[in-house]
Amino acid sequence: MNAVDLRPAYPAIIVAVTAVVVLLLQAFAGKGKHGPYVPFSLAGLAAAFLATVMIASSQERGLGSHTGGALVADELALFLEAVILGVALLAVLLSSSYLRATNSERGEHYALLLFSVVGMLGLVAVTEMISLFVALEIMSVALYALCGSRRDQVESQESAVKYFITGAFSSAFLLFGIAMLYGVSGSTSLGRIGSAVTSASDPNHGLVLLGVGLLLVGFGFKIACVPFHMWAPDVYEGAPTTVTAFMAAGVKVAAFGALLRVFGTGLASLADDWRPLVAILAVFSMVLGNLAALAQSSVKRMLAYSSVSHAGYLLAALVAAPRVSAEAVIFYLVGYAAVNLGTFGALSSLARDGREPVTFDHLSGLSRRHPVLAAAFTVFLISLMGVPVSAGFVGKFYLFTAAVGAGYTPLAIVGVLMSVVSAYYYLRVVVHMYMKDAPVEDAWAPVSTTSALALAVSVLVVLGLGIWPAGVLALAHAAAQSLL
Amino acid sequence: MHFTASDGVFLAFAAITVGSAVVVTLARSLIYSAFALLFTFFGVAGLYLLLGADFIAASQLLIYVGGILVLLLFGVMLTHKLYDLDLKSEVTQFAPAAIVAAGLFVVLAVLGFRTTWKIGPGRAPSATTDEIGHLFMGQYLLPFEAASVLLLVALIGAAMIVRRKKEA
Amino acid sequence: MTLQALLIALVLIVVIFHAHLGLFSGMTLIERRVLAFMQFRLGPNRTGPFGLLQPVADGIKLFFKEEVMPEGANKFGFFLAPMVAIVCAFSAMAVIPYGPAFHLPSFGFMPEWLRGRLITPQIADLEIGLLFIFAVNAVGVYAIVMAGWAANNKFSLLGGLRSSAQMFSYELALGLSWVGIIMLAGSFKVGDIVEAQAGPIWKWNLFMQFPAFVVYLIAGTAEVSRLPFDLPEGETELVAGFHTEYSSMKFALIQMAEYVNMITVAVLVALLFLGGWHLGLGFAAPPLVGFLAFLAKVGAILFFFIWLRGTLPRFRYDQLMDFGWKILIPIAAINILVTAGLVAFLGQR
User: Fold this and answer.
1) Strand ranges (DSSP E) for C177-226?
2) By the 8 A CB rule, do A234 and A158 touch?
3) How far is the C-alpha of A148 from the C-alpha of A139, rounded, in Å?
4) Residue A439: inside a domain, yes or no?
């Protein structure tokens, strides 16, 4: 029997084992008691992070890194795995006080979160379609359940059902696309699919196009780009806020990582065919996402539409994949993950007695009661806008440069214009926080230490990337190189 | 091309599969759909058998027929008043739906005939169990385990969602 | 497959099928007599010597009964259910070897190819043997669901649901209990599993796989809805469960399916755990002796089922479910784990 090299899977295995341990802690905690879920989860994630770093620093990672042709440990995978594990660490920190404030602390919550991380870790490292599908489903199924974890809220149930149905629907598209590509290439491995069809004169070209289109639809649902975004506002709004934070940050990183790999390596030779499609999706996402965000009265919904528009910005850079844009996308993902964790995390940290800020009015006068939190929130918002000295500025700069470099200058123009539009609704939050009085007595909780820690880290990442982007850019560059 | 016995068997299984699948989608009552799905699964198992995949055929019966569909029937029968409910889905926007469906059908049909499908070398029906076992425990260990993680996640998630409210 | 092999298979089918039919009618009588004995009664003893003709009388009676089609019943499902039941019950016997392979004697009237030919009393030696039995068993649940639903009777529906929930739950334990012995034999074929138990008596899976034996015996009893697991028919609550509305021949078919399933479980216990036709003495017995030993084992298990019925009260429904999910399945799973570890470190056997 040929031995399987499991090293690329170590981070995922560590996280999976941690999830099982957390589950058992719940089982043996006794009725009405809580086990030490948070320390265990943090320890497991940290160990996985360490494993990732160790694999990255070992010299021989390029050799024999294929695990049954399913997993690879190249720079791209390792870098995104590290990002995802960082996101998960912060999400666990945020969850601990939020779950207590909403009376929904359960071991399963952390276990599912960790399992979802397992799926994400797999998603950025797979080189084979069936494994990609399984990883995607592990991630998604765990998230469906997490969205519905607040049994006392109808909105939470609604979000779980909506996410589940649209998610299952999109998985079907993805599978159908994989089947088409398999029919042509006789393989599910990205490399073989890529070499099976190269020229447009090939008689199988039509089927390949269909397969690619279906794949794009499937991924489109996951990254919530227009026109596959309908679920996002309801799900983002209804899900427990820390789950939204984790989802908005983690799923974007994982799904775009997979998208980069699938379209950047496996289907790179067909780039002329899918580029226009991606460009159209990008334009629609940027325009509709931003316009819809203008009209929202709920902060969570506004942020959901904003995430749709950011999917558009990212797609705009993807048209140039893989030559220039992979590093732009990767760099942007890091900053964007931190910002998303920050904004939703800030909302969640104010939760008390099962209530939390939802509308713009709820945030009125926040600067007076929570000056530091309001300042942090402002940092996240200006990064979302793309104002200099923030990660968002540098990120957008590279994204649009990539689009221009690929000859899609109009895309970049639309992106810049829409960023200007977005300033309106982002600044609205700032206006509410700083220039309006709170109508009633402050109903919100003081920010807990763990949440404060997570938010502080997010702020540091956002500002750090904005002021000194070179370090992460170099890593992103190395990651992008591994795609070629 | 001449017609062999296995072609006939294939046609029979294909007819069972497609025919009952049509019933599944068109039946007014959920329970008819569920029972029709039984025959679809049988047809598919038959096709597997025809391809020499005896292990997969038996697993198909075991898992889809013996497991999933029974649970489906349970869901239908235990849900209040659902089992004799007439499903009258409103027909809205019939024309666009028909055009899209017909268009998709034409596209798929044309592609199906135009494409040179990648067909592996045929093999005589032989025991597959041993081979599958070695592949699962060897080369494909990781995807195999990942699939079990997926099932575990689904199980935990389902248990969490249906938990009684007061425990939450 | 040659024509000769086909002929032999046909003969085997006819013989095994009728053996089952005979055993079925015999069992109906034996069960009543043994039960009566256990309860200090006489039991049916009027029809023929010792009541031997009672099954025949029962059959004739059922034949002439009126076929009742309940109002509002779904005719298709109502007809189909007993057929599904009986087909599934009889399908399982296709892959079971009913005794050791033996050479035919050579008689003058036999054609040349039959003389001294090695015959395995098994209809089809499928590679996936046990898996096939398991799959067929799983399909059998539909007969019950369908019967319960089609009759348009709430007792039937409840009985059908209960019954299928029970079978479904215990099927898991049943399947898991087989995994250990499959690992030991390294094959799904029933014949291979029996051969793996050749030799001294401690080679029997009864000893090698004791937890699996206990789990299988219990789960098997539940699978065929015998006491103490006969909740689907719990007459105090559900009249007669899923077959409340059945009468005449359709009722007979359902009864037959149940008895045939019970016989199949008994045969499987004998083959999988009690060494089949091996005597456990360390040497190979002549085929006839082996066959008789096999029959004796099957008979003992069947008697055990009747004994259970005469002794134990019925489970409550929640106890039944708890027992299946929280006790049997974990035991079976741990057994698999331990067996797998032992096989990995010590090799098969």
Assistant:
1) none
2) yes
3) 15
4) yes
Tokens of residue B37, six digits = 């799905």
Amino acid at C235: E
In a domain, A475, yes or no: yes
C230-237, long-range: CB within 8 Å, 24+ apart, which pairs?
Answer: C230/C314, C231/C162, C231/C163, C231/C166, C231/C314, C231/C315, C231/C317, C231/C320, C232/C144, C232/C159, C232/C160, C232/C162, C232/C163, C232/C166, C233/C159, C234/C314
Q: How far apart are the CA of A422 and the nearest CA of chain B, in angstroms?
A: 35
Closest to C306 in 3D by CA, of C27, C23, C11: C27
Angle (CA) C172-C176-C177 rounded to 5° is 115
Could you write out the DSSP letters of every residue in A323-343? TTHHHHHHHHHHHHHHHHHHH
CATH architecture, domain B1-114: Up-down Bundle (1.20)
A1 within a domain of the structure (yes/no): no
State the ipTM, two decimals.
0.87
CA torsion A239-A243-A249-A250 (nearest 10°) is -120
Partners of C102 in beta bridges: C119
Structure tokens at A427: 């600044």
Q: What DSSP character marks residue C119?
A: E
Contact yes or no for B116/A203 (Cβ under 8 A): yes
Per-residue tokens: C101: 């392979």
Tokens of A462: 């956002």
Interface test with C, best of B79, B129, B132 (most C CBs within 10 A): B129
Which of A99, A74, A85 is CA-nearest to residue A43? A85
| Closest C-alpha to A104, from A290, A241, A291 | A241
* In contact, C257 and C88? CB cutoff 8 Å: yes
Domain extent for A178:
7-481
Residue B165, pLDDT score = 56
Backbone angles phi, psi at A322, to 5 degrees: -100, 0
Q: Do B66 and C77 touch (CB under 8 A)?
A: no
Query: Which tokens go with A142?
Result: 């765990």
Task: Report how far Cα C289 is from the mean position of its chain's Cα atoms.
Answer: 23
| Tokens (6 digits) for B129 | 């169990």
Does residue B111 belong to the interface with chain A, where contact is any CB pair within 8 Å? yes
d(CA A367, nearest CA chain B) in Å: 34
- Give the whole-angstrom CA distance, residue C229 versus residue C162: 11
Domain ranges of chain B: 1-114, 128-168
Contact status of B151 with chain A (Cβ, < 8 Å): no
The C-alpha atoms of residue B140 and residue A98 are separated, in whole angstroms, by 40
Question: What one-character-per-residue DSSP string does chain B give?
Answer: ----HHHHHHHHHHHHHHHHHHHHHH-SBHHHHHHHHHHHHHHHHHHHHHTT-HHHHHHHIIIIIIIIHHHHHHHHHHSTTTTT-B------SHHHHHHHHHHHHHHHHHHHHHS----PPP------HHHHHHHHHTTTHHHHHHHHHHHHHHHHHHHHHHS-GGG-
* List of chain C residues whose C-beta atoms are within 8 Å of the C-beta of residue B83: 149
Mean pLDDT in each 10-residue stretch from start to end of chain C (349 residues)? 81 88 86 86 80 81 79 78 87 86 80 79 82 85 81 78 81 88 85 84 82 90 80 66 75 85 90 85 80 90 88 82 87 90 77
Instruction: Report the residue of B40, B59, B62 to disrupt the C interface, i.e. the one with the largest count of C CBs within 10 Å.
Output: B62
- Check C164 against B66: CB less than 8 A apart: no
Residue among A285, A280, A277 at smallest CA distance from A306:
A285
Give the model's pLDDT for residue B17. 93
Q: Which residues of C77-86 are buried (b: 16+ CB within 10 A; e: fewer)?
A: bbebbbebbb
Q: What's the predicted TM-score (pTM) here? A: 0.87
Q: Give per-10-residue mean pLDDT for chain B (168 aa).
A: 77 92 83 85 88 84 84 75 58 82 88 77 71 81 88 90 62
Of C168, C167, C133, C80, nearest in space to C268 by CA: C133
Which has the closest alpha carbon to A342: A442, A432, A246? A246
How deeply is B131 buried, as exposed, middle or buried, from its count of CB atoms within 10 A (0-12, 13-18, 19+)? exposed
